[in-house]
Write the structure tokens for this entry.
Amino acid sequence: MNEFKKKKIMAAFAVLLLLFLIIATFGGGGEISPIENFAGKNIAVIQRGFTVGADFFGNIFNPVANIWRLDKINKELELENQELRRKLIAATLSQKEMEDLSEMKKALNYAQVNGYDFLTCDVVSKDPGTWFNMFMINKGTNDGVYKEQAVINGDGLIGIVYEAGKDWAKVVSIIDNRSSVSFKLLDEKDFSIGIVEGGTERGLSGYLFDPKAEVYAGQEIITSGLGIYPEGLLIGTVSDVIIEKNELLKKIKVEQVVDFKTINRVMVLLPAEEVEAQ
């Protein structure tokens, strides 16, 4: 007889013994006989064994079950956290959109931009280097963006669209050495006109056509409306006036209002008739 059969016989014997003891103790009332006393004691021992066994296996399997429950709870919490993160990001982006629009509205307060609409764009890449001399945006001809359209942000004039594809465009900033902007002084008494050019990372340089123009450091300059830029876009502040006797033109240094080290979002000015045609 092999070991497995022995265990089956022992288990069957234990079950039969338990049934016998239960029957022997059944009946109630009267005095307890020696057989009933013996059976009661053995039943208690067997029950205690079952109880200890149940507690033993309970102590083993309960932590496992708790781990499964905790794992399920953790997964549910993680999903809730992911949803909350998505909502927080969406709310943050919505707030950023509102801030950007507010900043752009501030920039437009300087400008006589009747006949123009605007398109917000994200900057997706730039040329190597610290400064944003030339960079790429994520909107193009499919959105109404074409060459020689003005580009601004909440601070003022950034530059102009240099090249455009279907869903992208390159922008050349006013600090680039290829840039030239016609400006006028932001002054109620003197609207003298001149030109500012890029080429220096620390600021713009330019001149006034009228050598007798009253210009001073701290004076703001805006686009004149002559050329490709709409009138009234803020360019910067005069930082220095250079007077040379032999020069017919009055030279100036200008500190641009836009931070050309950090540009994340811009606005392209679109002619209103082009927007209506789309």
In short: The first helix runs from residue 3 to 25. Residues 114-278 form a domain with the Thrombin, subunit H fold (CATH 2.40.10.340).
